[in-house]
Write a structure and sequence with these properties.
By secondary structure, the protein is of the alpha/beta class. The C terminus is likely disordered. Helix 12 crosses helix 13. The chain is about 45% helix and about 15% strand. Strands 1, 2, 3, 4, 5 and 6 form a 6-stranded mixed sheet that branches. It has a 6-stranded parallel sheet with strand order 9-8-7-10-11-12, sandwiched between helices. Strands 13-14 form a two-stranded antiparallel ribbon.
């Protein structure tokens, strides 16, 4: 992998390698773009096949966070960190303390949070060394479990998608097929049930399915049957890449709107949904409730204020549909364009405040 060539192609700002021999820390921090503000993105701990694979993952995820944060309307850029190691056996306090010191050394250019393989407890240890961390324990002024907030954002985004497809955002009487009934999806099902929707659910976890059936009167189907059920809306809330050439022909829905990441296996699958007239709510726009919620911690967390910002996902989904029509492109491309346009506008605005090559804009301190 030609790192600088890759960074130049996608306009990355910085790649930081961190190691600590005593604790065994091997970490990579990727900062993609800070035009809108400091880079916010979680720390993932994973057993990568190679160091190159870890670098690629950090870079790819950092760029994704730039788009997610921009589309969410946050004054934050995109970054991501990965720690190479097995999260089940390689963790220790010294590792996360050392990692916290590296984050502190970036002086606020990068703000971290939990991700795959890391926990609230890990963030608390990082917090011992730096304030540039979110998603810590509520005792430290954090927002706590982000799942209910992510679910609420997905719910309001689904309402916007329903309005586009059916002419009304009311979900009463609508049938929603939900793939995966984990933490986020359970709360989404609760909102849908309270809105009068009918639920069809599936999950490899039978206990999760039973809870949805018992609590919300959901109908359970096998995992391979969820794509072909008669429903108005399909909500992918588990694995990525579930919208693909095998599943799309089975769909009988008018809307795809769920909380899962990377729902499209390939770009052409987004094109296929568009050609079939199926309304797709881009995943990183509709599932942004969690990052919106933790971003509010940077201002001293306020639940009511955070939820008001999460409700703007409705507008962001509408804006995506508007760009799709304006430019005659599928909604997944429209989401990217919405994020890019916001970054470009802010970049131009900031250039007006350059004096002798130095920014004179006041930057919020964390």
């Amino acid at each position: 992998m030609e790192i600088f060539k890759y960074m130049k192609t996608y306009d990355y700002e910085q790649l930081v390698f961190c190691q600590d021999e005593v604790s065994g820390l091997k970490a990579i921090i990727a900062i993609h773009d800070t035009t809108l503000g400091p880079a916010l993105g979680g720390t993932r701990m994973w057993t990568y096949e190679s160091e190159e694979a870890a670098i690629e993952d950090a870079l790819r995820l950092a760029r994704g966070m730039t788009y997610k944060n921009a589309a969410a309307g946050l004054n934050l850029g995109g970054g991501k960190a990965v720690i190479i190691g097995d999260p089940r056996k390689d963790k220790n306090e010294q590792m996360f303390r050392a990692f916290g010191r590296y984050i502190q050394g970036l002086n606020g250019r990068y703000i971290t949070a939990e991700d795959v393989g890391t926990t609230v407890e890990d963030m608390d240890i990082i917090h011992e060394e730096t304030d540039y961390v979110t998603g810590i324990s509520p005792a430290f002024g954090s927002s706590g479990n982000p799942s209910p907030v992510t679910a609420y954002g997905c719910f309001v985004g689904m309402k916007a998608a329903a309005k586009e497809a059916f002419g009304t955002d009311s979900l009463e009487g609508r049938t929603v097929s939900v793939q995966g009934v984990g933490n986020v999806a359970y709360h989404l099902c609760r909102h849908l049930h309270e809105a009068g929707a009918k639920l069809i659910v599936t999950d490899i976890n039978k206990d999760a399915v039973k809870r949805a059936v018992d609590d919300f009167g959901a109908i359970a189907v096998n995992t391979d049957e969820i794509y072909g059920v008669d429903a108005d809306i399909f909500a992918p809330c588990a694995l990525g890449a579930v919208i693909n050439s095998q599943t799309i022909p089975q769909l009988k829905v008018k809307v795809v709107a769920g909380s899962a990441n990377n729902q499209l296996k390939e770009d052409k699958d987004g094109d296929e949904l568009h050609e079939r007239g199926i309304i797709y709510a881009p995943d990183y726009v509709i599932n942004a409730g969690g990052v919106i919620n933790v971003a509010d911690e940077l201002n001293g967390y306020n639940y009511e204020r955070a939820m008001k910002k999460v409700e703007l996902i409705y507008h962001n989904i509408e804006r995506t549909f508007s760009i799709s029509k304006r430019d005659h492109i599928p909604t997944y491309q429209a989401a990217d364009r919405m994020a890019e346009e916001r970054i470009q506008k802010m970049g131009k605005a900031r250039n007006k405040f350059l004096v002798d090559g130095h920014h004179i804009l006041s930057r919020r301190k964390h």
